[in-house]
Amino acid sequence: MTKVFASPHDLIGSEGTLLGPSDWLTIEQGRIDGFAEVTEDRQWIHVDVERAKDGPFGGTIAHGYLTMSLVNHFLPQLIEVRGFTHAVNVGADRLRFLNPVRVGARIRGTGEIVSVETIKGAVQSIVRVTVEIDGEDKPACVVDTISRYYPEA
């Protein structure tokens, strides 16, 4: 279920709030191939299905950065902030890839609001997103996302 905040100011004091989980998303080879094309990262472990069968994971795996980029898919399912004129994706901290995502695996996001502060007329939040793999004990990745919301007057 999405946690909704009526305004950026409502984020203040919400540290420790758990978010999610999001819906599951199945990672298909077509998504991996598409990511390889747009990033020009065509390493065989990602795109050569036949060769990867004999590789360390018994098949192709998603790029770590593909998994991280899907955090953008999960975040709106985890948290919704309303009442702002605009928002900025400031970046990310503490990115760790902990477990490969095999083709056909289902992943989802969970989150925790780590910090909230007022910066330059905006409210900035850090949400730690964990990308879980269905049936695995270890997550695919963990990343701290940084968002800045400019409240309506």
Structure description:
- This protein has 153 residues and is of the alpha+beta class.
- It has one domain: Roll (Thiol Ester Dehydrase, Chain A), CATH 3.10.129.10.
- 22% of the residues lie in helices and 40% in strands.
- It has 5 helices and 8 strands, in the order βββαααααβββββ.
- Strands 2, 3, 5, 6, 7 and 8 form a 6-stranded antiparallel beta sheet that branches.
- The chain is elongated and about 55 Å long.
Features:
153 residues; Thiol Ester Dehydrase, Chain A; 8 strands
CATH class placement: Alpha Beta
Going by CATH, the architecture would be Roll
Strand content bin? 35-45%
Mean pLDDT value: 98
SSE class? alpha+beta
Give the SSE map.
Blueprint: E1 3-5, E2 18-19, E3 25-26, H1 29-39, H2 44-47, H3 49-53, H4 64-69, H5 71-78, E4 79-81, E5 84-97, E6 106-119, E7 122-133, E8 141-151
Parallel strand pairs: 1-4
Antiparallel strand pairs: 2-6, 3-6, 5-8, 6-7, 7-8
Nutshell version of this structure?
The chain is an alpha+beta fold and 153 residues long. 22% of the residues lie in helices and 40% in strands.
